[in-house]
Amino acid sequence: MTRSNGQDAGSTFAGSETGFLRFVDVKKSYDRKTLVVNGFSLDVAKGEFITLLGPSGSGKTTILMLLAGFESVTGGDIEIDGVPVTRIAPYDRNIGVVFQNYALFPHMTISENLAYPLRARKMGRQAIASLVEEYLSLVELDGFANRFPAQLSGGQRQRVALARALIFEPALVLMDEPLGALDKKLREQMQFEITRLHQKLGFTVIYVTHDQTEALTMSDRIAVFNDGVVQQCASPDELYERPRNAFVANFIGENNMLPGEVVETVGAKVRVSVANGKEITARLADVSSAGAPCRISVRPEKMFIKTDRTGYDNEIPAKFIVQHYVGDFIRYYFELDDGTEVTVKLLNDLDAPKLGQGEIAGLMWQASDCYAFNTD
Ligand code: ADP
Ligand code: MG
Predict the structure, then answer these.
(1) Average pLDDT for the chain
(2) 162 partner at 20 to 30 Å CA-CA among 15, 94, 140, 246?
(3) Higher confidence at residue 91 or residue 206?
(4) What is the DSSP string of 137-172?
(5) What is the pLDDT of residue 3?
(6) Is the pTM higher than 0.90?
């Protein structure tokens, strides 16, 4: 077992050092008919924090099971440090795992729970005792060594599960919705804890969640899944700012979707006619031919309400319905001529416009802040 130095493992991963973990065209079928993972390829660098994000049933857990060796691939290959995992027994893959309901041993104390993976690895008593102390302290549970799991809160138990997954210093740690059972405040606290430990210890993480905020805040890169296929794999800001298709745009962040029809493409831009025959300009995503139906995707915070502002590429009239105060910002709800509902999100400052119900206002946004997506 190689022990990394916890003090200086470093928080940054070398982006160029790919190939620590490789998925090559991985396919998985449980019933020999449907592929629940259909051609998954991904190169992961050592120390990277990768999140698999997707709706329930999209194949995320299956990928972790294949990696951990609890299931075998139907096609393709997975390599760790250049060695196909099919040639490494699950135990020897040296992978730490944390699951949503990864039960601690209820009849063992916290320190016995932590010692378990070390005993299984035949480590000596002294070394075990000092590691248990070190990891209890890392997850801020000093003084809890002799309690039993039932005497801890849900959040504390999950910290123990985390410490138990990390204590044998695996190079690779898999986490499957580890915070799903916790309430919002605790979840945010644990998100911070996990990223802190990741930065301090430098292990590689494959994290699974269906919570986009969690994915955006924690990950170096996110692979967005749907139906066993990666829709896009990129950094959080790239996914948010440059979604490749309507699924990704809808799954990450909020979106207005305006139905329209392609008029013409001009380089990387596209002219589209939307409600009331109004023409607007958008970035070209996955549509091409003139006359094709499409959807314009614009985030609520990228739209503005015409008051005395000018200089936006696009403008369409919309009927004001209602507004909601959310404290630091205000959400305005509008309706277009074709019935499409549009939300605009503006900072709650002195410039925030006051509109009367039914009033027609101009909604404005930049061409670079919207995409034309294929309608399927
Ligand atoms: P996710 O973790 O994204 O919710 P899963 O990987 O658990 O998705 O499941 C993907 C698909 O595979 C689902 O349709 C699920 O019903 C199916 N599936 C998962 N595990 C098994 C299994 N052990 N046997 C048969 N089908 C399974
Ligand atoms: Mg799952």
Answers:
(1) 90
(2) 15
(3) 206
(4) HHTT-TT-TT--GGGS-HHHHHHHHHHHHHTT--SE
(5) 40
(6) no
Ligand 1 nearest atom to the CA of residue 208, by list position: 2
Tokens of 107: 């009849």
The reported pLDDT for the residue numbered 11 is 35
Query: How many whole angstroms from 70 Cα to the centroid of ligand 2?
Result: 14
Distance 229 CA to ligand 1 centre (A): 14
The total of other beta-carbon atoms located within 10 Å of residue 76's CB is 16
CA of 228 to the centre of ligand 1 (A): 10
Residue 270's Cα: distance from chain center in Å?
29
Count of alpha carbons within 13 angstroms of residue 226, beta-carbon side:
10
Contact 241, 248 (CB under 8 A): no
Pocket of ligand 1 (CB under 6 A): 30, 36, 54, 56-62
3-class SS at 234?
Answer: strand
Give the model confidence (pLDDT) of 313-329 as tens digits.
999 999 999 999 989 99
Q: Which protein residue has the closest C-alpha to ligand 1 atom 20? A: 62
Q: How far is CA 107 from CA 103, 111, 148, 202, 244, in A?
A: 11, 12, 7, 32, 50
Q: Please state the atom number of ligand 1 nearest to the C-alpha of residue 71.
A: 23
Q: Is 34 exposed, middle or buried (0-12, 13-18, 19+ CB in 10 A)?
A: exposed
Q: How far is the CA of 51 from the centre of ligand 2 (A)?
A: 13
